[in-house]
Specification:
- GO terms for molecular function: hydrolase activity.
- Keywords: Hydrolase.
- It is a single chain.
- The chain has 15 helices and 16 strands.
- By secondary structure, it is of the alpha/beta class.
- It has two domains: 148 residues, Pnp Oxidase, Chain A; 284 residues, Rossmann fold (3-Layer(aba) Sandwich).
- An eight-stranded antiparallel β-sheet has the order 1-4-5-8-7-6-2-3. An eight-stranded mixed β-sheet has the order 9-10-12-11-13-14-15-16, sandwiched between helices.
- Strand 11, helix 8 and strand 12 form a beta-alpha-beta unit.
- Helix 6 packs across helix 7 and helix 9 packs across helix 10.
């Protein structure tokens, strides 16, 4: 038997090493017909449907006892499956103070009841209003024999397994070790169990019996009322007939610019080839993205001086890379922050972008090698940026910088850090330090709309909606950080910020929030230049070697800096 626990998160944890069941205890799937008028329509398509239902909604009722003397306790459970996905065991624990567990020593039989996504279906959604209301839902019932495991080791395995699965991927994920000595007393207060599944049956009543037009109306109604989990389960069971229901009520994705599409396809394909389906830790991921992007950074302008120095910050020295197109003269400076979800990329992946901006604008560009998450989380990188800004103004003259003309900018996560920094500097009375902000497709909110996720956040896009969620969860330290104005710029008061240039890729999952930020800046009286680049996805300025759109975006950003710093095109060309 190949037993594997199916956790709520995307990655399965190691199974708890309980002994395998005897052959007469292997589950029957399903054990008897579902009590519906047309039961065959509402049965699982595969045993994995039940396992996924438990993983997504682990809270269940444990019911036992004779008629009239029933006991019921709501408990979180985990499921272990065989190699084909059939549920074998449910794992959980009772509070020792709960009398229900003691009865299982005499009679191990119990029923486990679980209700998953569900929702009322209103006829108001239908073109045909003669239809009646209904209810869509997914439920599972398990007939089990409960085997108690009442040792400290059992309790420890169960508590750690459940906690690890539930905390996986959360911002500031908690671990049992943080309880310290209190954990020992908590562990004494629980009794573990393994429920051997004798029979499993489920009802997935998800519109299978509806006419095609009514089914589409239900999907659209769920979408419009933000019941996306239930809608996703309906799509899982729709046999393909609902494929166009949601697409019909939203704009279709625009085609990518052909030059950028070649860059995107190459980067994605090469990354997948090197990864070869392996699960990677963050250092391994960084190594691969560096390798994939290295050829795209070659070529381009060669500044007269490139130098690396270190700036002191409250979190220790931070490496800076200087690209100076005209050494020996004090000049405006752009402090640049690379993208990569606060977790990847580097001064190397964005070296050509920085060289292009230095040459085109005639300014010194200083790349800031801020600390990456998840090893280091908010607000460390933001505080490093603020300290580097102060350091540049205090020490810049020795390196050819005009401290009175300092811009801050970056792409993606770097754009987020730029906005967080100017907001923080303004709030502590140092807003005059930054004269301009250059921002390309920044993350201004952790919340991507459902439409943007469907249009430009798919697995085939440069930045997927899942990646957006992952990056945010690994950057912030705790859930409340999602609503800090220094991370979530759309929640901030924006009055008094320096002038902005916002470059937006039309085909980017973050395009909506960039447009929203531009509008809010304008409404707050901030001078804003905004440009939408047709056919451009996320990360498109990295394609400068092959893309005229990327070159234009960098030229537009450079022109913005020249205007803000009073540099003519001829001066910039001479410097470049």
């Amino acid at each position: 038997m190949n037993s594997k626990r199916q956790p709520p998160g995307p990655n399965a944890g190691r199974p708890i090493p309980w002994p395998p069941p005897s052959p007469d205890r292997l589950p029957r799937f399903p054990s008897r017909p579902d009590p519906m008028s047309n039961p065959s329509l509402f049965q699982p398509l595969s045993p994995r449907d039940i396992a996924d239902l438990v993983a997504e909604q682990p809270l269940a009722w444990i019911v036992s006892g004779a008629a009239g003397e029933l006991s019921a306790t709501p408990l979180p459970v985990q499921v272990e499956c065989d190699a084909d996905g059939h549920p074998l065991h449910l794992l959980g624990h009772f509070a020792r103070s709960n009398p229900q567990w003691r009865a299982f020593a005499d009679d191990p039989r119990a029923t486990v009841l679980l209700i998953g996504p569900h929702g009322y279906v209103s006829p108001s959604w239908f073109a045909d209003r003669t239809r009646a209301p209904t209810w869509n839902y997914a439920t599972a019932i398990f007939d089990v024999d409960i085997e108690l495991h009442d040792t400290p080791e059992d309790a420890d395995r169960l508590l750690r397994g459940l906690t690890d699965d539930m905390e996986r991927g959360r911002p500031g994920a908690w671990s049992i070790e943080e309880m310290g000595e209190r954990y020992a007393s908590l562990r004494k207060g629980v009794v573990g169990f393994q429920a051997h599944v004798r029979a499993a049956r489920a009802t997935f009543k998800l519109g299978q019996d509806e006419r095609d037009d009514v089914f589409d109306d239900i999907l659209r109604g769920l979408w419009d009322t933000r019941q996306h989990t239930l809608a996703a389960w309906m799509r899982r069971f729709d046999g393909g007939r609902g494929a166009d229901a949601i697409a019909a009520i939203e704009p279709r994705a625009k085609p990518l610019d052909p030059e950028i599409a070649g860059f995107i396809d190459s980067v994605i394909a090469e990354g997948r080839r090197i990864t070869a389906g392996r699960e990677l830790d963050w250092p391994e991921r960084r190594e691969i993205v560096e390798q994939v992007r290295r050829p795209w950074c070659e070529g381009g302008p060669v500044p007269a001086r490139t130098e690396e120095i270190f700036a002191d910050t409250r979190h220790g020295p931070v490496r800076l890379r200087i690209h100076d197109p005209a050494p020996g003269t004090a000049k405006p400076t752009l402090a640049f922050l690379h993208g990569g979800g606060w977790a990847m990329f580097s001064l190397d992946t964005h070296d050509r972008v920085m060289r292009e901006l230095a040459a085109r604008a005639g300014v010194a560009v200083v790349g800031i090698d801020y600390a990456l998450s998840p090893e280091v989380r908010y607000p460390v990188a933001l505080e490093q940026v603020i300290d580097v800004v102060r350091w540049l103004q205090d020490n810049g003259a020795a390196h050819g910088f005009d401290a009175s003309r300092l811009a801050l900018g970056g792409d993606s996560a770097g754009g987020n850090l730029s906005t967080g920094a100017v907001l923080k500097l303004r709030d502590i009375g140092e807003g005059e330090r930054i004269a301009a902000v250059l921002s390309y497709y920044a993350g201004f909110t952790p919340d991507c709309s459902p439409h943007s996720r469907r249009r430009y956040g798919t697995d085939e896009d440069m930045l997927t909606a899942k990646e957006v969620d992952t990056f945010w969860n690994y950057y912030i330290s705790r859930p409340a950080d999602r609503n800090s104005p220094y991370t979530h710029g759309l929640l901030a008061e924006l009055e008094g910020l320096p002038p902005y240039f916002i470059g937006i890729g039309e085909c980017d999952v973050l395009a909506e929030q960039n447009l929203a930020m531009a509008g809010k800046l304008l409404a707050s009286g901030v001078d804003v230049e905004v440009k939408l680049y047709r056919g451009a996805p996320h990360s498109f300025i990295e394609a400068v070697a092959v893309s005229s759109v990327a070159r234009q975006a960098l030229e537009d950003g450079a022109a913005f800096l020249r205007r803000r710093f009073g540099l003519g095109r001829a001066v910039a060309a001479a410097h470049g």
